[in-house]
Design brief:
Layout (H helix, E strand, L loop, with lengths): L15 E2 L4 H26 L11 H21 L6 E4 L3 E5 L4 E5 L3 E9 L2 E12 L2 E6 L5 H10 L1
Antiparallel strand pairs: 1-2, 2-3, 3-4, 5-6, 6-7
Helix pairs in contact: 1-2
Length: about 160
């Protein structure tokens, strides 16, 4: 009996997911949850009258610190979690998504692959020859298929 599950569809090989499923958690859930939480705290400190804030120090410095913490969180978010993308691949293209838009890059556009450890997590960076819609560096958390793909990629 012929196993048709392994045959390519429409002349193309099957697309595999190189990024981890946890990317959705780190890219969408954590930023939204923490941003809403911090925004609520900042809003509470700003809206509530100073007499109703039971603080041992004046309210103005606390309000300023709360706003600074909010801006610092947004800067950290932009530099770290917001850079994570979902990456899929087939023989001809890599597909990069930020969960709102998806862009297809041919493999010829890939200049190098870097693997780094940040906060005890492995991060993979695809460096492109020219900047695309998501910039020149595509960062993602590697999934279970990444190691097999990397072995095949290194052999080319």
């Amino acid at each position: 009996m012929l196993d048709t599950a392994q045959l390519p569809k429409n002349g193309h090989t099957k697309t595999i997911q190189l990024s981890s499923n946890a990317t959705l958690f780190w890219r969408v859930f954590i930023p939204i949850f923490i941003t809403v939480f911090i925004s609520g705290l900042v809003l509470a400190f700003i809206i509530i009258d100073e007499e109703n804030l039971y603080l041992s120090i004046p309210a103005l410095p606390v309000r300023i610190i709360a706003v600074i913490i909010w801006f610092v969180w947004l800067a950290i978010l932009k530099r770290t979690l917001w850079r994570l993308k979902r990456v899929d691949a087939d023989d001809n293209f890599m597909y990069v998504s930020d969960y709102w838009k998806t862009v297809r890059y041919p493999w010829q556009d890939l200049a190098s692959v870097e693997e780094k450890k940040r906060l005890n997590r492995q991060i993979v960076n695809f460096n492109l020859k020219q900047p695309g819609l998501f910039g020149q560096k595509i960062s993602f958390l590697p999934g279970s298929s990444y190691a097999d793909w990397k072995k095949q990629f290194d052999q080319l």
